Amino acid sequence: MTLPGDTLQVRVEAKTAEALDICSFDLVAADGSALPAFSAGSHIDVAVSPTLTRQYSLCNDPAEQHRYQIAVLREAASRGGSSALHDRVQVGDLLTISAPKNHFPLVHGAARTVLLAAGIGVTPILCMAERLAAMGAEFEMHYCARSRERAAFANRIAASRFAGQVRFHFSDGPGAQRFDIAERLAEPEPGTHVYVCGPRRFTDEVLTVARARRWPDAQLHHEFFSAEVGPAAGDSCFEVQLARSVRVIVVPEDRTVVQALAAAGVEVQTSCEQGVCGTCLTRVLDGVPDHKDLYLTPEEQAANDQFTPCCSRAKSARLVLDL
């Protein structure tokens, strides 16, 4: 797997234990130059090895140009990314990364912003808090973690200029301090935008509650870090037609569209291969996709005019793609 687009060479300037099983990495340009600017909510692709690329949100102040900071949770079921960074990458090592990309941007001019983070999902949310505080914007932040020892950047938040706007919620703490999603999102608030990032279960619950309370999707913003991707019992063979060449390629039930296209010599840029990053997003000109991604909103999926070929399939016998 290769990084799509331009790449940067960076050096690990610092590696810090931020919480139980969470390390942060400060990355600086290998040649000592300033790094490309980034906006709150951005992430970078990191080439963990020649065959492994992973996405990590930037969690430092977007005003900084001398470094990128990421934080990595050691996953019990790691596919190789988190364990490699924790165990093998050390201060002084060189890494290849992409330029920053933002699929989770802040809406500037919101009347109020509600930031909801759970676990390692604090990384893009913390960056957003830094930016909103610098702008003097109205916001509140709720940070949920299993325990204080697992809450990365707790000391940094406590010492920040926006400490008074943050509430911590620990699963092992008294019931009264736990975050009540239904209470906070009980009624839609015109002009208020909600951002949520964390484990799938937490994010799904926030979005489900908000939509049940009739919060407009335009005011709900989320980012997933990973997804369960694999063959499903109902998967069947179908065809994709490439509109620009009129080629027809068969996608077997045990292969993804990206894999079938690659076997036919057609390359589609990919990164996460789990339907969470949007790198491979492709226009659908005809046919009905079977959406399996976590990147598109329900409304975008319902439009059926684009899909993620790294994981999504087809409900119709054929999909015509803008390729």
Any overview of this molecule?
Keywords: 2Fe-2S, Flavoprotein, Iron, Iron-sulfur, Metal-binding, Oxidoreductase. Residues 5-107 form the FAD-binding FR-type domain. Residues 238-323 form the 2Fe-2S ferredoxin-type domain. InterPro entries: 2Fe-2S_ferredoxin-like_sf, 2Fe-2S_ferredoxin-type, 2Fe2S_fd_BS, Beta-grasp_dom_sf, FAD-bd_FR_type, FNR_nucleotide-bd, MRET, Riboflavin_synthase-like_b-brl. The protein has 323 residues and is of the alpha/beta class. It has three domains: 7-98, Elongation Factor Tu (Ef-tu), domain 3 (Beta Barrel), CATH 2.40.30.10; 112-223, 3-Layer(aba) Sandwich (Rossmann fold), CATH 3.40.50.80; 238-321, Ubiquitin-like (UB roll), CATH 3.10.20.30. Helix content is 17%, strand content 31%. The chain contains seven helices and 18 strands. It has helices spanning 81-87, 122-135, 154-158, 181-184, 200-212, 257-263, 298-303, and strands spanning 7-19, 22-29, 43-49, 52-57, 68-73, 94-98, 112-118, 139-145, 166-170, 192-197, 220-223, 238-242, 247-251, 282-286, 289-290, 306-307, 313-314, 318-321. The strands form four sheets. A six-stranded antiparallel beta sheet has the order 4-3-6-1-2-5, with helices on one face. Strands 9-8-7-10-11 form a five-stranded parallel beta sheet, sandwiched between helices. The chain is globular. The mean pLDDT is 92.
